[in-house]
Design a protein that fits this description.
alpha/beta, Rossmann fold, 6 strands
């Protein structure tokens, strides 16, 4: 019984010792975010100049070649001609669309062929799944496109870079056979 009494007294003693000490919450002080200070801008070196776009007079380059082509053996006037887009096989940037337009204009002024309209060429390229930026430059693709458009001739042109000298090479091909009727080369300045 002593033990029971001792346990009860211990429990009462412990129960009376409970303190009601409440802990205050830690004070919160708002902190305003600091503004980032931009490092002082120091004048840097000169901004490098972008490469100058070289203006090429395509008309003066292609005109003599068109003159040569007009007098080539085996060329019949009045036939349908596809002027395929000029291919750029250089490591530089050239405005080949302007070159293609210059060739088309020179041939149209000469009035030796019926040139296929750009809109027809664009539509045919879409139908055949060829993009207008197709740079593979295969003669077989040019001939296939010309056959699709029922052209008699195709003018294939490519710009190459040989030892720093850029050249344009033009080839007039018979669509039925793929035979090259005329070939000419000119310097691209």
């Amino acid at each position: 019984m002593k033990r029971i009494l001792f346990v009860i007294l211990s429990a009462l003693l412990l129960a009376s010792c409970v303190t009601e000490e409440t802990q205050q919450p830690a004070p919160v002080t708002p902190v305003e975010p600091k503004k980032k200070q931009e490092p002082p801008v120091e004048p840097s070196e000169k901004v490098p100049q972008p490469p100058k776009i070289q203006s090429i007079n395509w008309n003066s380059i292609v005109q003599p070649l068109v003159e040569q082509m007009a007098t080539a053996n085996g060329v019949e006037t009045g036939k349908v001609l596809l002027v395929d887009s000029v291919k750029n096989n250089t490591n530089g940037s050239l405005r080949t669309l302007k070159a293609t337009d210059a060739i088309t204009d020179a041939i149209s002024r000469k009035q030796i062929f019926q040139v296929v309209a750009k809109s027809q060429v664009h539509t045919a390229r879409q139908a055949l799944g060829l993009s207008s930026e197709d740079s593979l430059g295969l003669r077989s693709k040019s001939i296939g496109l010309a056959r699709y458009l029922n052209a008699d001739y195709v003018l294939y042109s490519v710009i190459t870079n040989n030892n720093g000298q850029r050249d344009i090479e033009m080839q007039l091909m018979l669509v039925k056979t793929g035979e090259i009727l005329w070939s000419g080369r000119g310097d691209v300045n």
